[in-house]
Design goal:
Length: about 290
């Protein structure tokens, strides 16, 4: 079985990105797996603390292990935005491949101190787990928002990125480069798209020389995605777009069969809707 580090090394060399998609139910999970298998691409699946609370930490790990075992498939599991050492340890013990310790809401020095503690705790359970950390503020909610959250829009500087990586020795860095969690209502219909600062991505990559993740990918301009990946983003997160597709799929499934009570018959439309989004993003992220 190929490791996540090997998959990321190859993606970095090829200047493509590995898609990371969140799930909290079997409809979304199966949709992500089906899209990745159709395209024959490695894929990351992730769960925030809230999503893990719903699925169960070990239960999520068991789903991913089942797909690996059945198809020998390069699917990797990430503990997205983990805010406590205890939750990071639980994910490490359950067999997650990557853990994001998110101290981005803390003052810079405190973020460094807490990230170092988290790395030590995680690596003492399994040194092969990749640890990602986040600097800069890009909001916290994968939802449809009325306005851009306060404080979003300040970019990470190459100097603070270098300082953070040298102090923590983290494996993967998530900087703020014009990206944002969630989507504005105007982005849902596609008339407004998020724009990224490509030059800043290249400068930070040159400063840190480790893997970088683009969070908050939903609603981003396609050309900016391509350029961001060529400039050093090796993992790209998409969540809100999948949630929107899931919801419209569930609504369509219910509307199509008003008397239906079998969940698997209703949720087929949600699987199809999420799969379509994942397929289109995987195709974009893997294009050379
Ligand atoms: Zn994120």
């Amino acid at each position: 079985m190929t490791s996540l580090r090997e998959v990321l090394n190859r993606a970095e060399a090829d200047k493509v990105a590995v898609g990371h998609f969140n799930f909290s139910d079997l409809a979304a999970f199966n949709a992500i797996v089906a899209a990745a298998r159709d395209k024959r691409l490695p894929v990351m699946v992730g769960l925030s603390e809230g999503e893990r609370e719903f699925t169960g930490v070990r239960q999520a790990a068991a789903l991913v292990k089942a797909v690996r075992d059945e198809y020998d498939y390069p699917i990797f599991l990430n503990a997205d935005h983990t805010h406590s050492i205890a939750n990071a340890e639980a994910a490490a013990k359950a067999g997650f491949d990557e853990i994001i310790f998110d101290g981005s809401a803390l003052p810079f020095e405190e973020n460094i101190a807490q990230t170092k503690k988290a790395i030590e705790a995680i690596k003492s359970i399994n040194p092969a787990i990749l640890v990602e950390a986040e600097i800069g503020w890009i909001g916290a909610s994968s939802a449809v928002l009325d306005k851009i959250p306060d404080g979003v829009g300040v970019l990470t500087t190459p100097d603070e990125a270098r300082q953070f990586v040298e102090a923590t020795l983290v494996d993967v860095l998530a900087p703020a480069v014009g990206n944002m969690h969630g989507m504005l209502a105007s982005m849902v219909h596609g008339n407004v798209r998020k724009r990224l600062n490509i030059e800043r991505i290249a400068e930070i990559k040159a400063a840190v020389r480790i893997f970088m993740t683009l969070h908050g990918g939903s609603g981003t301009n396609d050309d900016d995605f391509r350029k961001a990946i060529k400039s050093g983003m090796t993992i790209v997160h998409v969540n809100t777009e999948l949630r929107l597709a899931w919801r419209s799929g569930v609504e369509a499934g219910l509307a199509a069969a008003p008397n239906e009570v079998a969940p698997y018959k209703i949720l087929g439309a949600a699987v199809a809707a999420v799969k379509e989004v994942v397929s289109s993003r995987l195709e974009l992220f893997s294009s050379r």
